TrEMBL record:
Name assigned to this protein: Pyridoxal phosphate-dependent aminotransferase
SUPFAM superfamilies per UniProt: PLP-dependent transferases (SSF53383)
Family membership noted in the UniProt record: Belongs to the class-I pyridoxal-phosphate-dependent aminotransferase family.
Domain Aminotransferase class I/classII large: 21-352
Keyword field: Aminotransferase, Pyridoxal phosphate, Transferase
Amino acid sequence: MDYETPLFFHVMGYAADADGDVIDMVSGNPDWEPPRALRTALHEYADLEPDQFQYPPSAGLRELRGEVADRRGVDPSQVVITNGAGEANYLAMARALERNVGDEIVMTDPVYPYYPGKTTMLGGTQRFVETAPDGSLDPADVRDVASEDTAAIIVNTPNNPTGAVYPESTIRALVEIAEDNDALLIADEVYDHFDLSGTFTSALTVDSSNRIVTNAFSKSMAITGFRVGYAIFPPELVENAKSRHMLVNVAGSRPSQYAVAHALRETGPDYYEANRDLLRDRVTTFTSALEAAGAEYTRPDGSFYVMARFSGYPGTLANVERLIDEAGVAGMPGEAFGSARPDWIRFALVTPRVETAANRLATYFE
């Protein structure tokens, strides 16, 4: 079977091998500090007894599952600690398909490329719903596509790559559509701490046995290398997910989970607000330069990505490589995110050199 291979690592490798100075705006690796409590916990961990260096419980450390459950208003038994949001989404999509009520996964276009890739890997069929130019999703369009063949509807809010944040009315409508078609709504909320609009609504606010919520600490704590995420399942769906997690991974990293649990408990809201303020400033800096260059752009309500369209310069892989070589700025081609935004390029605002990158683009396209 041929799987779709996301282009992220190709573009990152091309940028790394390029001659000259290249500003990486490809990956979603935050450049700011993780919580101080997380560093402290890692130091503490090094001096623990040998038994703490062995397998943790497969579903995750009890302490971490409890912290997640308390914050999300669910029972700890519903929480599976995963190898980042990537595994959380894999478990959720697998659980949807193994219910044998359909083989289609409905997703948006533009789309985070790992969703269609996982769908193929799991033997499912992709169905796409195009979003509006601002990234908003009309539930009526989802309802038109959903059918008895739908196993799941997967959405990401705040969204990568569009920056859209779906309002409560959209989330409730999507859960209802899933229920009406005996499908599952999978809500990937990994950017929930980067809601810049104040309008984010978690799917957990809707009580339903037809929804799964996935998340991770990769972005919110600036620890993409720790690979600590989680999925929250309805009680009747969680046991098979735990078994699949055990068979694929055995368990996750014990020291990573230990550090995250301590950081959750000891990190206040000021940490997250400071990072949102940083991103707001970067959005303003970057989009102002794009406007000066005459580019069209999206101004994100959440997450930390900006999509831009430069006249006569479609967002192909070849043009992205050319931009790396000639302007010294690396972004992601719009064609990597489906068929709806082939003329656009996505830039991640997770570099302290946002202003320099913006100026380089403005100069290049003037």
